[in-house]
Amino acid sequence: AAFGRLTTLAGTWEGKAGHGEAFQGATVPYRLPPGAPVVEETLFPGTPHEMISMYHVVDGELVLTHYCAMANQPRMRLDREASTSDHLVVAFDGGTNFDPAKDTHVHSGVVEWKGETLHNAWAVYSGGKETGQNRFVLERKK
Helix-strand-coil percent breakdown of the chain, rounded to 5? Predict the structure, then answer.
C-alpha cells in the first residue's frame, strides 16, 4: 500500500527546501520509469547537488536507496508501525560507501501528505548522531 501511495506522486513538484531555517526554491520530479517497478525521486535536478532516491519493494517491504551527492548510498526501509497512508516513515537499513558510525549521511525520513502539499523531512547523521534535517515543502506543478 505504501508503494502504491508513492506512485501517486508521479509528476513535478515545486516549493522550498532547506536545512534548518535556510530555505531555497526546489523542484522535485517523481517518475515511474516504464517497465521498472520503482518510483524515482530527483532532488535538485540539473545542479551539482543532484541526487536520486529509488523507492521499490523487496520481499513485500518498501525500501529506498538514496544516491547522495556525498557519494554514498544509504538504504532505508518502511517502518510499518510508525507509518500511515499519509505519513510514511523510513528507517535506516544500511548502505554502501560510508561508515554510519562516523560519516555524514541521510539516515531516515518522512514523506507526508498534508492536503495538496507534500512535506518531506530527511534526518542527517554525522558521527553516529543526528545533526539536522533536510526539509522539503512541495506542491504539485500545474
Answer: 5, 65, 35
